[in-house]
Design brief:
The chain has about 220 residues and is α+β, with helices and mostly antiparallel strands. It is about 25% helix and about 20% strand.
């Protein structure tokens, strides 16, 4: 009688043990880009956006993995995931990835990431260094990912957003021209809206006190 031995289960960890960001500057930009894209595609159920999520492109190869700071996948539903296993996602690779450099990122590490994104069919790759305000853009051609010579004020073919560094930091703009806001800016805008609403209500109450209720 021949005994059958089962193959060991392949484990795809949901964490690489590394922090999402090494400093506040890097963290704030990652969150700003991720949340801005969430709002941009809030009404499209078939756009999945993630930050610092492990991406496994090949089944059976858990060592082939990376975690883009932000990635966008068109054609996959929104929802929570522990990691992005491409073979469970109709084999759709992220089309757009963003990386925000930190001082701990080495040139060798980033070269390996570029090779990874190229090999696994990313369409657009954006790399930004907040310390030098340098933006680098790679776009897929028939030859693979190719760098853009003058990436500043660049509009993403996939996303339609514009990336600009003229203010001294990376600023993203929606297709309608409005900018991606930081968390603090969003709260300030909400406060302004509340103040305007309160002022309008106060004026309306003055009218009621003087003239009575508005006719229906």
């Amino acid at each position: 009688m021949v005994s059958q031995t089962s193959k060991p289960e392949i484990v795809y960890p949901d964490s690489d043990g590394k922090p999402m960001a090494d400093n506040t500057k890097q963290f704030e930009l990652i969150v700003e880009i991720k949340k801005g894209l969430d709002l941009l595609y809030i009404n499209d159920p078939q756009v999945f956006i993630a930050g610092d999520l492990l991406w496994y492109p090949i089944q059976g190869q858990p060592q082939t993995v990376t975690a883009p700071d932000v990635m966008v996948v068109f054609g996959r539903p929104k929802g929570d995931r522990g990691s992005y296993k491409q073979w469970e996602e109709d084999n759709i690779a992220p089309q757009v990835v963003f990386e925000i450099l930190s001082p701990s990122n080495s040139r060798i590490e980033m070269s390996k990431k570029l090779l990874f994104f190229d090999r696994h069919k990313v369409e657009e790759y954006y790399l930004y260094d907040p310390d030098t305000n340098l933006l680098e853009v790679w776009i897929r051609t028939t030859e693979g990912l190719e760098p853009i010579a003058q990436p500043d004020n660049w509009t993403s073919p996939c996303l339609g957003i514009r990336l600009d560094t003229n203010s001294g930091r990376l600023q993203l703009y929606k297709p309608d021209g409005t900018k991606f806001h930081t968390y603090i800016e969003v709260n300030e805008l909400l406060e302004q809206e509340r103040d305007r609403a309160n002022q309008a209500e106060a004026l309306l109450q003055k009218y009621r006190d003087r003239y009575g209720e508005l006719p229906s």
